[in-house]
Each structure stands twice: as C-alpha cells, then as structure tokens.
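User: Sequence in, structure out. Go.
Assistant: Echoing your sequence, followed by the structure tokens.
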Amino acid sequence: MRQLRLLSLALFAAASPAWANDGAVTHPDVLLPAASDGVAAEDDDDDSSSVKAEKDALKSAATTPSVVELDDEDRRRRIIMTLQKKNFLKLKRFEGGIGAGAVVNDPFLNRRIINGVLDYHINEVFALDFQGGWAPEFGEVIDSSSENDPDLKQLTKDLLKYNAVAPDISKLTFHGSAALAYSPIYGKGAVFNNIIIFDLFGYFGLGAVRTHDDTTVYASGDDDGDTVELTALQVHPTTVIGGGLRVAFNQRVAARMDIKSMSYIEVVNGGTLEMKNNLIILGSVCFFFPNMQ
C-alpha cells in the first residue's frame, strides 16, 4: 500500500507544472520526502498498534482461565460421583444368622460349636448383640481306653495311654451371651470388579456357659489301676469380650467373623476354684430384615 502511494505521488509531481495556485512553486524533491515520511509514520503507527493489540490479546488468553458454566443437571451429576449414597444401612434392622466355630485355646479338648446370632441395630454404630451356641459331645467317659475319642486332642490321649494321668478337663457344651456392640469403622472395597461393603465391630457383655467336667482319678496303691470317675455339669456366669468383621454382599445378606473370649470361674474337685477362659472363633451367614428404611 505504501509503495503505491509513493508511486502515485512521484507520477503526479512529474506531470505537474513548475508553478501552482497562488503563485506557490513546488518541486518533486520537496514534496516526496514530506509525503513519504508522513505515510511511513502513519503506517508504522498502525502496524505497531496492531501488533501490540495482538500481543495483549495473546497474553490475556494465556493468563485468563476458561470458565465453563454448568447447568443444574451437570452439577448434580458431579456431586453424585463424589458423594455417593450409602447403599447398605443397618438402622433399626435385625440381623439374624447361623454359623459354626471352635474353641482354639484348649490344649486338651476339641470343642466344635454351632452358633446362632441375633442383633438389633439401634443405629449405624450401636447394636444389641445376642448369641447362643451348642458344642456337641462325641465322646463319653474319659479313661485309658479313650484313644479314639474325637473330643480329645493328642496330648490328652498320650497322657492317658502312657502316663495313666487324666488332666483337668472341662468340656464347654452350651453358651449364651448378651452384649452391646459398637461399629466404628465402615468402608468399601473392590474384589474381582465387585464393590463390597464391610465394617469392623466390637462388643462387651455378660453371659453363661455350661460345662461337662470329666475327671478320672486313678486310685493310689491299686495295682490294677482302678479309677474313680467324677462327672459334673456346671453352669457358670461369664464375661464376654469380642469383635469381628462383617461383609455385606447386598442389602439383605452378609457374612461375619467373630472372635470372642469368655472367662469364668469353675469349681474343680468339689471345692477348688479355677479361672477358665475359652477363646472362640466363629463364622456366620447373616440376613437383615426388614428392608432398608
């Protein structure tokens, strides 16, 4: 554009006469520099202002974050993704189940237990826990011929067979308890692309156990090895301390594992008091009812 303007001015100066209106004398050498400088200054100003405007626009775009307006539906979707609704509730529901377990800390006896549980969940944290269990007796009288008794561990059988000594044996046959349960931890986990819900719980309460005491006393000084059998059924009040893990597969079905300790005082041989403790591990399948509120 600037070159065209300069070319037209040069042609105009060459074609014009040496005089002008009002007696003014003009010359191409006088006109061209002035016109050229004016046009160049004007174009330079336009170019510099345009470049400056473009730089300012680029800087503004680089420093200004883009803001995307979300409608109400998009906002609800984002909240649902981060704050998901709890899809398993225990509030004011019953939990009933049945399971099996064993006493794991008795060195002399095998005690297998069939157990039932019924909980009422006051809220998501606290519950009333009721449990009862039965331990069937597979053996009968403990004596030197009890090598095949499934209730006896190998240590007891060896003592009876080789040493003619019967340890102090107390078979747990029934137990029942009532406790206050507390569930402070709730969580979710992914197992084989499936979401499972779990919580940890503990409980403390009171209960009772019934024991079957089988004691064989070998008569002293008897060459024939005659024995006197002392058998007694006793009921003992006991404390219950326990805890466990519950895994919910859906809104109604869950599995739980309990570990609990039951301690009581037992009368041995008609007058001696002895502290007993049974550590029990139980696994149960439980069902929740009624439906979630």
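User: And one key feature?
Assistant: Residues 18-36, 217-223 have pLDDT under 50 and may be disordered.
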